[in-house]
Structure formats: structure tokens, C-alpha cells
UniProtKB/TrEMBL annotation:
<protein>
    <submittedName>
        <fullName>Carbon-nitrogen hydrolase family protein</fullName>
    </submittedName>
</protein>
<feature type="domain" description="CN hydrolase">
    <location>
        <begin position="4"/>
        <end position="251"/>
    </location>
</feature>
<keyword id="KW-0378">Hydrolase</keyword>
<dbReference type="InterPro" id="IPR036526">
    <property type="entry name" value="C-N_Hydrolase_sf"/>
</dbReference>
<dbReference type="InterPro" id="IPR003010">
    <property type="entry name" value="C-N_Hydrolase"/>
</dbReference>
<dbReference type="Pfam" id="PF00795">
    <property type="entry name" value="CN_hydrolase"/>
</dbReference>
<dbReference type="GO" id="GO:0016787">
    <property type="term" value="F:hydrolase activity"/>
</dbReference>
């Protein structure tokens, strides 16, 4: 069985209000069918994208340490009850360093994390850069689902998605807080990353607005979360209102599309011929 059900939550986070944001997320999760295997939250959505990162770091060095944070504990409880994978993205505190980090939770606890490498504008003043792009393998319905994670701005870096696809990723996931002013880039880049790599793609974005704690600027988010097939077709998407985008995806389509337009095969041939 190659089909799995996936979902992305889209909502407006309130800066520094974890309880309110958790309630918004929980309300949306309650509308997601119980057989959904992967649930994705937007970037920094539980603290608020514009929150003071020095106050909201999660220790992701271990499952036990992460459980001390209410955001993580709540998501872990849901993952355990539903027997699903939850991909969230919050501030990670590692000693004196803070990172913008996506992490994967299952009933087994913290099973992986990906730190944002390419930071957008003032994010470089808030966060330290991640160093390594990782591939994660999830077992769903007795099959291996290989996923790669990019965060927000990184959806515009084809190099990241291409490396992940060459490493074996058949599902690309982007938790994001993508700005309304650059919505055109979100729409085009998300479909391009799916098509050029023959991968399914979940683009999970925030909606509404936040007031920046850094400079008082009003930031408006684009919404338009979507799930895209390996041909670059949008299977399901939202507008700029809060909601959930859900789809059943058939992973056998990945191989079919990669055989139909063999970008990855030809890149591998090219690399092999040039290494001689």
C-alpha cells in the first residue's frame, strides 16, 4: 500500500502567546482525520514568528529534555494518541546558540530535527545557521517514506531540494512563515521544487499578521498552504484564511514521474561521467 494521508495546518499565530497558539493548532488538528500519518505546522507558529527568541527556546538535545516544554509535550501527546508523525518548527536553544529548527515527533519521541541553513534578512541576527541538510526515513503503513525538510525561505533554494531528492527523498516538506509581499515566489517555487525533483511536496504556511519584536514592523503572511504532486500539480490548497489542507498521496507516483522526466537519473549520469 503506497498511499498515505498528510495534512498541513495554517493559522495566525499571536506573538508570545503559546497557550492561544496551541489552542489554535489543537482546534485544527481535531478536524484532521484520525488516519492522517503526517501533520505539519508552520514555522515558529506556537511562539509566534515575531516572538523574542531568547524567551522561547526548546532544548531539543533529547526527548526527555524537550518534554519540559509545553509545546513539545502537547504535540508528543497528540502524536502518541494518533500514532502519527508531527513536524513542527520552533526556536531551538542549544547552549548559548539559538536555531530556527524543524523537528519530527512520533509516539517514540523526538526522532529528528533540521536546523534552518539559509536565514531570511533579520533572521541572521536572531539565529545561528544550521550546517547540514538531512534525510529522514519514516515507517508508515509498513513502507519507508523518505522526507526532506526545508524551512520557509529555503523553498527558493533548488539546491537543497535537489540534494534531498538525489539522496532518496520522495516527500519534501516546508514549514513556513512566508510573507504576503512575496507570495508569487511561494506559489512558483513550491510547484517547481516538486516538478524538478519528481517529489510530493507539502508547503505549510502561516496566515494573518504579526508585529515584529525586533523593529515593530507589521509582517503579513501569505497563507496558501498546499500539497503538490510530483508533476507540480496542486492537489489541494488553502487561501489566506486559517484551515487545514489534507490529501491522500500515492508514493508510487514518484517513481512513475521520475521515469517520465528523468531529471535525477540524468544528473547522476552527468556526475558519474565527470568524475572519471
Amino acid at each position: 500500500m503506497s498511499q498515505i494521508s498528510v495534512a498541513a495546518l495554517q493559522f495566525n499565530s499571536i506573538t508570545n502567546d503559546i497557550n492561544s497558539n496551541l489552542n489554535s493548532a489543537l482546534a485544527l488538528i481535531n478536524s484532521v482525520p484520525n488516519d492522517t500519518s503526517i501533520i505539519v505546522l508552520p514555522e515558529l507558529s506556537l511562539s509566534g514568528y515575531c516572538a523574542d527568541e531568547s524567551k522561547f527556546g526548546i532544548d531539543l538535545s533529547s526527548h526527555e529534555n524537550a518534554l519540559k516544554d509545553q509545546r513539545y509535550k502537547t504535540l508528543f501527546d497528540i502524536a502518541t494518541q494518533r500514532d502519527c508523525f508531527i513536524i513542527a518548527c520552533e526556536v531551538e536553544q542549544d547552549g548559548k546558540n539559538t536555531y530556527d529548527t524543524a523537528f519530527i515527533i512520533s509516539k517514540d519521541g523526538l526522532i529528528g530535527k533540521q536546523r534552518k541553513i539559509f536565514l531570511w534578512q533579520n533572521e541572521s541576527k536572531r539565529f545561528k545557521r544550521g550546517k547540514k541538510q538531512k534525510l529522514f526515513s519514516l515507517t508508515i503503513n509498513n513502507q519507508k517514506v523518505k522526507i526532506g525538510i526545508g524551512i520557509c525561505y529555503e523553498i527558493g533554494f533548488g539546491e537543497i531540494a535537489r540534494k534531498l531528492a538525489l539522496d532518496g527523498a520522495n516527500l519534501l516538506i516546508y514549514p513556513s512563515a512566508f510573507g504576503k509581499a512575496r507570495g508569487y515566489a511561494w506559489d512558483l517555487a513550491s510547484r517547481a521544487r516538486a516538478l524538478e525533483n519528481g517529489s510530493f511536496l507539502i508547503a505549510c504556511n502561516s496566515c494573518g499578521s504579526n508585529i515584529s519584536e525586533i523593529n515593530g514592523e507589521l509582517l503579513e503572511f501569505y497563507g496558501h498552504s498546499k500539497i503538490i504532486d510530483p508533476k507540480g500539480n496542486i492537489i489541494s490548497q488553502l487561501d489566506n484564511s486559517a484551515g487545514v489542507v489534507i490529501a491522500s498521496i500515492d508514493l508510487s507516483e514518484v517513481k512513475i514521474q521520475r521515469d517520465t522526466i528523468p531529471y535525477l537519473k540524468d544528473i547522476k549520469k552527468f556526475k558519474k561521467s565527470n568524475s572519471k
